[in-house]
Specification:
Largest sheet: 11 strands, mixed
Number of strands: 19
CATH class of the largest domain: Mainly Beta
Radius of gyration: 28 Å
Structural class: alpha+beta
Helix content: 25-40%
Length: 356
């Protein structure tokens, strides 16, 4: 009876929790991760990263055995060893006689393969556990272990498809001067620092072109155009954002539009979305987590959709309105014209992974 009461109370609490989550989802059309984090649906970044590393390692091991000569031999021997004729012959012979037969050698080889750790793992593993990462292959991972940015495939500034376009500049309506890499630090990660520092820099003003402007803050922008040398289906970044500054991780086409905001951080709000070639913006806002902590932000294209995730939790999806365009990753920290009480800050990137 006590067990029944406890189960009843547990059911009540679960029902109440579901009602609360449903209430907040109806109240706010934005994605709120607060309750997913509170109840453990959104795993900590450290746990999720360790779990993903193990899952990818297991998938590699699974696929390696699946394509091995040992597995081919296992499949060839399995029906032989389990056949009626094989079992009957083994019954008729004494142990000494059986050891002198080809069947004995076949069974010994079969048992050798079946008892290996790789085979046991393969046979005891339900492939469904790899569904989330099936088809994903990490073909590039950058942890920014360089002495300087020049040693990497990343470059300071913006990348434009137009030849001879000015790549290092600021925007007139923003409050920071982009410093051409002077505010970027690499070595066991990469950081873009926003500093309270006076500087004069070239700024693009709509309708006027480039003009000189005095700024009270400095920061930087960074692109990875040379990181992309072929087709890819997804990209993930582990990063954190600090200070009363806006931070952005986006995919650029080399033009102002189209482009994809994988994570546009505005305080404690995270905006994800895509601008199509006409300038229409499809997006949502994510709340409930603190971007000052490390999270893994990702975007994938699958079955005609663009899918955004934070720590493997899907936060937004929309039709892929920009198919057949080449995009490359870019990062920046900036202070918008409307930003109140801006401060120093940093965008800290632990690693970037690109998937085929």
């Amino acid at each position: 009876m006590q067990t029944e009461c406890r189960e009843y109370k547990y059911t009540q609490y679960s029902y109440i929790i579901l009602l609360v989550i449903e209430f907040y989802n109806k109240k706010d059309t934005d994605m709120n991760l607060f309750f997913k984090k509170l109840f453990g649906v959104l795993a900590s970044t450290e746990k999720m990263e360790a779990r993903d590393q193990q899952l990818f390692a297991e998938l590699i091991n699974y696929k390696k055995f699946e394509g091995s000569a040992e597995y081919e031999e296992y499949k060839r021997l399995y029906p032989i060893i389990n056949s009626y004729a094989f079992r009957e012959k083994k019954k008729r012979l004494s142990p000494e006689e059986y050891q002198a037969t080809p069947e004995y050698q076949q069974e010994a080889r079969f048992n050798e393969i079946a008892s290996s750790e790789d085979c046991k793992f393969f046979l005891n593993t339900d492939f469904k556990k790899f569904k989330r990462i099936e088809g994903l292959v990490v073909y590039k991972k950058d942890t920014f272990n360089y002495q300087s940015l020049d040693q990497s495939k990343w470059k300071a500034g913006f990348y434009y498809n137009k030849p001879n376009a000015v790549s290092i500049h600021s925007r007139y309506e923003e409050q920071q001067a982009n410093m051409g890499g002077k505010n970027i630090i690499v070595g066991g990660g990469l950081s873009i620092h926003t500093k309270y520092q006076s500087a004069t820099a070239m700024a693009w003003a709509d309708g006027k072109g480039f003009v000189e402007k005095n700024f009270q803050f400095t920061s930087d922008t960074l692109h990875g155009h040379d990181m992309i040398d072929g087709e890819y289906c997804g990209i993930r970044v582990k990063m954190r954002c600090r200070g009363n500054v806006s931070h952005a991780f986006w995919l650029s086409s080399g033009e102002q539009i189209p482009h994809i905001n994988v994570a546009l951080i505005k305080g404690k709000k995270i905006e994800v979305g895509v601008y199509d070639a006409r300038g229409d913006y499809y997006y949502t806002t994510v709340k409930g987590i603190n971007p000052a902590d490390y999270y893994i932000y990702s975007i994938y294209q699958k079955d005609g959709y663009l899918i955004w995730k934070i720590n493997n939790i899907e936060v937004y999806r929309t039709r892929n309105v920009i198919a057949e365009r080449r995009f490359f990753p870019a990062f920046s920290s900036f202070i918008s014209k409307s930003q109140k009480n801006p401060s120093e800050g940093s965008l800290d990137i632990a690693w970037v992974e690109i998937y085929r």
